[in-house]
Amino acid sequence: MKTKDILIGLFALLLIGGGIGLFLTSEPGLAPAPKVTLQTLEGDTVVLEDLQGQPVLLTFWATTCPGCVKEMPHLVELYERYHAQGLEVIGVAMAYDPPNQVLAMRNQRQLPYTIALDLDSSAARAFGDVRLTPTTFLIDTRGRIIYKKLGEFDMDRIENSIRDMLGEKAA
After folding, report:
1. DSSP 33
2. Per-residue pLDDT tens over the stretch 82-121
3. Centroid of chain to Cα 147
4. How many domains in the chain?
5. Distance (Å, rounded) from C-alpha 49 to C-alpha 33?
6. Range of the domain at 157
7. What is the CATH number of the domain that holds 128?
8. What are the CA-CA distances from residue 78 to residues 36, 45, 55, 74, 163 (Å)?
9. pTM of the prediction?
10. Does pLDDT of 21 surpass 60?
11. Is the peptide bond before 134 cis (omega within 30 degrees of 0)?
């Protein structure tokens, strides 16, 4: 009887763990991106809906997040390689990050892409109540979320998707 109970417990843990893992890396399909307005460090406004027609790589990050810092060179590389062709890269700083620290990190790391502040967490809530960083979304040219990743994103997969979208746009 004990062995059976242990096996049932292990099976339940595997199901729960697998479900959590699936949720954290799940593909949202073609869900429309939320309609959010972001404030940049410079005080400009970015209306996500206005970027429809071009791919958008949006990542929620924090200055204290090692994975976020590790991703930054990849974001810079994608920005430098594809921005002239239409890619927008937006780093959204979490509400708990003081703007002066966000600005200091942007300057220290020489981030060329848009850095926005989510001071009231409205963008994080709109994107499914993002609480952990990095959380990255790739939005296609029709304004649909085609990739979501909690943790470091798959550079090859993101780059291939961006290339495909930019190729579609040129066609």
Report:
1. P
2. 999 999 999 999 999 999 999 999 999 999 999 999 999 9
3. 9
4. 1
5. 8
6. 28-170
7. 3.40.30.10
8. 23, 22, 12, 6, 10
9. 0.82
10. no
11. yes
